[in-house]
Amino acid sequence: MIGNGANCDCESNGRRLDSWKPAAYFLFLALFGLSAHACSQQVLLPSSTLIAETALPDAPSPKVSSPQQVPEPSSPASIHGSVMDGNGAACEGVRVVLDQASSPTSSRAVTTDSSGRFGFPDVPAGEFKLTLSANGFAAKAMSGTLHSGESYETPSIVLRVTAVSEVRVTATQQEIAEEQVRQEEKQRVFGVIPNFYVTYVPNAPPLTTRQKFGMAWKSSTDPVTFLIVGAFAGVEQATNDFSGYGQGAEGYAKRFAAGYADTFIGAMIGGAILPSMLKQDPRYFYKGTGTTRSRVLYALAMSVICKGDDGHWQPNYSGILGGLAAGGISNLYYPASNRNGLTLTFENALIGTAGGAVQNLFQEFFVRKLTPKVPDYGLSKQ
Fold this sequence. Notes:
This protein is α/β, with parallel strands linked by helices. 46% of the residues lie in helices and 18% in strands. It has ten helices and 14 strands. The radius of gyration is 60 Å and the shape is elongated.
């Protein structure tokens, strides 16, 4: 029994020991079977499906497009500057040329004003170049960049003087005198009455013989001279001076002819023939400076003295002898009743000299103020 009992225990114990095996087996199958099943599924997938899964790239992420940026419109700008010389004085009339890289075929040009300033309005933004040029100065260029809406002020631009070749042209005394005579023949009191025989140039060169005759001829044939002679003839007719001429048109014509003969002969003898022979200047040399007394004495003295062609003062033989010669000749055409021979001739010469002195006083103090367009010759500063 003991034996039987022992065997039974061992058998039962053996059965208890073996009872865990099914559970362990099923647990092993459960774990191993799932892995195997998974491996079998991977192995058994079609090759095309596997390749497709491995070859497909990741789906691209959608791109978010940003809104398109529109460039802001460019505002016009401007360029300004000033130009001066090496001494700091403003340069007027300088030509300034503007070129831009954005428009190489188009250029703009301006000139500087009296203060040396220049300006270019409405200039597109971008790189630019300025080129400056003027006579007597070396050309100069500068460049820069202009921004939109900018008012660009260039640095002060200085132009350098180029080498200048000085050429001196000296006019002859005759050419200078010719030019001065042309100016004198434009001198008219109130812009009408001839005032040719006065010079406002203190050291005027002497006149040539041709110039002396030309001035005498122009003075005596001026239309205003005829009008003045005609007016005096009318007064003589009204007062019945030189009654031997009579009245009416014939009397007026004789008075006019005698008056014009006096004027013409006096101008030719006293203003051309004798001055050429004696080398004297028939003009009145305006003084214009000094005290009133000195100017009065000068004007009175100029009726009997004159300047010679050599520039020295001397007795006015031309004027005095010219008056006597004209008075003597007038005895040939004045009425016999008005001829007193030599006495009348000297009387007329003295009257002419006194009249010349009065005329010189007017020249010295009044006539210049009444004569427009007289060259200054620096007298206003004296």
